[in-house]
Amino acid sequence: MTEFVSQYFNLTWIYWFFTLIYALTIISIVGVVISQNRNPVKTLAWVTVLLALPAFGLILYIVFGRNIKNKRIVSRSVRRRLRRREIGYKGDLRRLDLTDSSVQHIRLAQSLAGAPYFIDNSAELFNNGSDKIDAMLVDISGATRYINLQYYILSDDEVGCRLRDALIKRARAGVKVRVIYDHVGSFRVRKRFFRSMSDAGIEIYPFYKVSFPLLGSRINWRNHRKLCIIDGETGYIGGMNIADRYLTGGKFDVWRDLHLRIKGSAVMALEYSFAVDWYAMGHKLDEETSEPATKHHKAGSYGMQLLTSGPNDQWSNIAFVFLQAISQAKKCIYIQTPYFLPTDALLRALQASALAKVDVRIMIPRRSDSEILRYASYSYINECLQAGIKFYLYEPGMLHSKSMLVDDEFATVGSTNFDFRSVEHNFESNMFIYSREFNEKLREQFYADQAECYRVKGAEWRRRPKRQKAKESLMRIFAPIL
Prior knowledge:
It is built from 19 helices and 19 strands. With about 475 residues, the protein is of the alpha/beta class. The chain starts with a helix and ends in a 5-residue tail after the last helix. The chain folds into 3 domains: about 60 residues; about 190 residues, Endonuclease Chain A (Endonuclease, Chain A, 2-Layer Sandwich); about 160 residues, Endonuclease, Chain A. It is globular.
């Protein structure tokens, strides 16, 4: 009997000891959340989850709640060394044929990330995967020095194998080939696909590989960039990954997306972005890939500026330029995005512009590759319509384009969706183009897609089924982490 009582008190003591440790852990995390001075609504949400559902809330916070702003993954000295190889425009921006708004956008991007402004570039716009992959494979086949390639999704399907074989062929010909893929985005790809490239001499690595015990500290921060740089002369950037669905449509009849093929000194900015991510994974980039491409300054007439953003940056770089461009719009704002889950600041800016009689049009897919994101996006439509924003649902298939044009001169194409994840959690890259000619090209593409859309009407939209409204409201709750 005495032995039983002794064991009971020992177990009770152990139980209360671990309960106390657990309680102190939860209280400490609540203190950390409060001390980070985030948006009060988000702070209150996390505190509520941690206190109401301690075990589940702790797991959610570890995976989705941690903040890495201002955390340096590449040192300042390395960034400065890489930046010195970019030869951007050094003159007075006011002397260029640019509007005052464009000059302010350029200066903002320079302040946020030191992004140089490049003149005399050209950009070819692709609106389908077939043309883009064919052009890129031709450029890859002509590479003589190096190929740097980075994609969120690098599939081992037919398109992926075509790219793999082209890269292997160049690697065996003595061309230096480097590849970055996102570990989560390409999680379903078989290891032998990557191993075949590695065995051929290609340097290929996953970005932020997710594995225990690093699962919770890495899974929420994904590298969503899509870049390709060939010999420092040609660059690709946009929204298209490497997968068959970008050509065939997958489960959709059509998969609409946009991508750019760039010539000119702006290619150096793509070099810089790739180099930073390469260093972030612990690999040194040979100096050859950062040689100034001065001979390409006269490739065209477009002014360009590459801006990258990530969860570790002090500011939400791309979102800040979006916000300024929207707020200063005088005529029109046209946006294409697969998911519309804007931050409060971006939503209010769009509403204010529409209320000021700026022509604001937003295009999203009627059917999406994610039902959760579709309903979450739909939850914003009614309050946008009330402000005078025009909403268009793309009918033929999946609209995956990520673009925005404002007035007559400003345009951007890249990897950034108009949602919380792109703004707060992903590593993204967008090319900002200051050109009336390119703006008109993007406008024509928007109009062509708009002709295949259903325009949402307020009265009809309000009559949608209550079950759908309930789904939209429920999914919107999770918008900040979707």
